[in-house]
Amino acid sequence: MPRKESGRALSVGARSGFRSAKYFRSFKSVSRDWRRPTEKCAPAFPYCCPRFSRYCGSSPLFKQLSFRRGNITAARFTPDGQNVIYSAAWAGTLYPELFTTRIDGVLSRPLNVSDVDVLAISPQGEMALLQHWRRTNGWERSGMLARMPFSGGASREILDGVQDADWSSDGANLAVIRGGAQYQLEFPLGHVLLRESAGGWLSDPRVSSDQQHIAYFEHPGRGDDRGNVCVMGRNGGTRVLSTGWSSLKGLAWAVSGEEVWFTGSNTGGNRELFGVSLSGRLRPVLRVPGLLLYDIARDGRVLLAEDTIRREVMG
Fold this sequence. Notes:
Helix content is 0%, strand content 54%. By secondary structure, the chain is mainly beta. The chain has one domain: TolB, C-terminal domain (Neuraminidase, 6 Propeller), CATH 2.120.10.30.
């Protein structure tokens, strides 16, 4: 029975460290199943979170930015942290398109690039894109990795058969997860650090700011979003930081570089925001069900989405 995600709201928070979160902002999206967009909509709304973690001095404030209905598939901060690039398939549109908006604004501007997800943005403003991607098996996907300047210009195709990718902190290299019969993690592109040998798959690679580690999700079952939070050293060696999650999606490094933040669920698919240290110490960050982490800016602001997940039989 396929799982549906509905009512997604993209949000930006003020801090990712142990200080108070000051504000968030949100978008809305229609529901979708795990293979294709649908036309079932949920109303947009702003909301406040009751607590942000035991380290924070106040509750985060959520501010709504967009009232359009659609499916937001990816989002990243620009290098200056003042803008967000996101991919969305608004109601009536089958494939996602690129949009940009300021974090202090209320309007979004189309970038006139369609059938694409934004995977990462380098410090130089070059976007890593996943073009023409399609679901291949449950949560797995495959598409064409391309690069394109945020300032404009044509995209340049790099590699087909890609699941996910991320820029290094200097923008010189890409960490890439390739799909297929056997998943592999490459960093830099072409240098294989890890081959998944247990019959599972990999997702959500994120390179640490010092470029010495790559965090990622390991999913033991093909097509399933159950999994473990892992870190791979640049010179090899994998550490499993947290295991046994029922659902994992969305990962980023905390500004300190001492924690990996991710959204996961112990039971079902209602994810919450957690942090785990490189020694494996796990803590809750934001105990609000239905969250999806997209990015953390250099100044600590957090880019989140809110999901409402339900199960339906697809006819």
